[in-house]
Specification:
This protein is α+β, with helices and mostly antiparallel strands. The chain has two domains: 63 residues, 434 Repressor (Amino-terminal Domain); 99 residues, Jelly Rolls, CATH 2.60.120. Helices cover 22% and strands 33% of the residues. Strands 1-2-3-10-5-8 form a six-stranded antiparallel β-sheet, with no helix packed on it. A four-stranded antiparallel β-sheet has the order 4-9-6-7. A hairpin with a 4-residue loop joins strand 2 and strand 3. Helix 2 crosses helix 3 and helix 2 crosses helix 4.
């Protein structure tokens, strides 16, 4: 499967390859650091595999970079409208999830922001992120069930929750309508040292 140039899939493939080479890591070393198999990393670098959101978080954590680094590295200045020629959208069909990058990681402010959509009946499970990563969830449309520490809680449109994301967590849409929410990811000092 060949990937189109100038797509997010191509950007992810090139970024993972570049991060590994900048560090002088073999695929074995990268697999050990990220918890993603050597075979899967090779497939991602060659554009032969479409990684899940969970896999992308493992890669970002292992390389100590922000999640949005894998999607886009254009950083608009404060007061500058962020408009990108290519769509900064990543779909994870296995999770019924679509993530649109609204603001890439800003080292001055220490955050990045996504608009996430979960299809009816979809669930997205995340492994623990790096220590010092805080997620801020604000529901725009629909209803989310969020699992933290094996406890589910419900968030509705207009409600939000902030939590340390250094533990496994899950988001699901148990309704018949779509779920849309903002996900602001804040990196406390040292949480993403490679950025």
């Amino acid at each position: 499967m060949a990937i189109e140039p100038h797509t997010i899939a191509a950007h992810i493939a090139g970024t993972v390859r570049q991060l590994r080479k900048e560090r002088g890591w073999s695929l074995d070393r990268a697999a050990g650091e990220t918890g993603v198999s050597k075979a899967m990393l090779g497939q991602i670098e060659r554009g032969e595999s479409s990684p899940t959101v969970s896999t992308l978080w493992k890669i970002a954590g292992g390389f100590r970079v922000s999640f949005s680094t894998l999607f886009d590295n254009d950083k608009p200045a404060l007061g500058e409208l962020h408009r990108d020629g290519r769509e900064s959208v990543w779909g994870d069909d296995s999770a019924g999830m679509q993530a649109r990058l609204l603001f890439p990681y800003d080292p001055l402010l220490g955050f990045e922001m996504f608009m996430i959509e979960l299809a009816p009946g979809a669930i997205s499970e995340s492994s623990a992120h790096a220590s010092g990563v805080v997620e801020h969830i604000v529901i725009v449309e629909g209803e989310m069930e969020l699992r933290l520490d094996e406890r589910w809680q419900t968030l509705r449109a207009g409600e939000g929750l902030r939590f340390f994301a250094d533990r496994p967590h899950a988001m699901r849409n148990n309704t018949a309508t779509r779920l849309r929410f903002h996900d602001v990811i804040h990196y406390l000092p040292g949480a993403a040292s490679g950025i």
